[in-house]
Specification:
It is a single chain. The chain has 201 residues and is of the alpha/beta class. The chain is built from 4 helices and 9 strands. The protein has a single domain (26-183), classed as D-amino Acid Aminotransferase, Chain A, domain 2 (Alpha-Beta Barrel). Helix content is 24%, strand content 25%. Strand 1, helix 1 (51-62) and strand 2 form a beta-alpha-beta unit.
Length: 201
């Protein structure tokens, strides 16, 4: 809606392809305050306006971290710059609710669906940084990383990396992908389809 009176070019879409980057088997997480505005009408909307994410991720990299947990204006855990976050406490998996300002990630939705069927308790819960620091296990999820364990967050070491629940969920998700492809009528390994093998974790 906001543009000058200059004519648009005939072609305004550029597509390029590149191999997916490799990821470590576990990640180190930083924490940043006031990086998600949960009250914003655009909260949870996936856009290409990634300056805030890129800025925070770059600063985390400069500090020696792989990813950064973003807090909202209430000091609650929302998500990472390009992943959802999960904490495991006493065998139960917890993840921030959408009201935190996090994105409703595809992998997050799959985990919320398949965990109860596999006997793994999972629920959305308001989390604060101290809930992550004291977690038995931590992991992040995204479409191109699947499930990756976190071994450290803001100087706090996580004992189990990856822990038994993280390992089980990685196996569950790895099995879910080819099963879903079969249900959708697409052969496993079809051109343009994601690999069923988890990237890490």
């Amino acid at each position: 809606m906001w543009h000058s009176d200059e004519p648009f070019p005939e072609v305004d879409i550029i597509l390029s392809a590149a191999p997916l980057p490799t990821y470590p088997e576990s990640v180190r997480l930083d924490v940043r305050e006031h990086c998600r505005h949960a009250a914003s009408p655009l909260s949870g909307v996936k856009t290409i306006a990634w300056l805030n994410n890129v800025w925070n991720l770059q600063e985390a990299h400069e500090r020696g971290f792989d990813e950064v947990v973003l807090l909202n204006e209430r000091g609650e855990v929302a998500e990472c710059t390009a992943a959802n976050i999960f904490a495991v406490r006493s065998g139960e998996v917890l993840t921030p609710p959408l009201s935190s300002g996090c994105l409703a990630g595809i992998t997050r939705e799959v985990l919320l669906d398949i965990c109860p069927r596999a006997g793994v308790p999972i629920r959305e819960a308001v989390l604060r940084p101290e809930d992550l620091y004291g977690a038995d296990e931590l992991f992040i999820s995204s479409t191109n990383r699947n499930i990756v364990a976190a071994g450290e967050i803001a100087g706090h070491t996580i004992a189990a990396v990856p822990g038994p629940v993280t390992i089980k969920l990685g196996e569950l998700f790895s099995a879910y992908v080819p099963e879903e492809l079969v249900r959708s009528g697409e052969p496993v390994g079809a051109p343009g389809r994601p690999s069923a093998k988890p990237a890490a974790g």
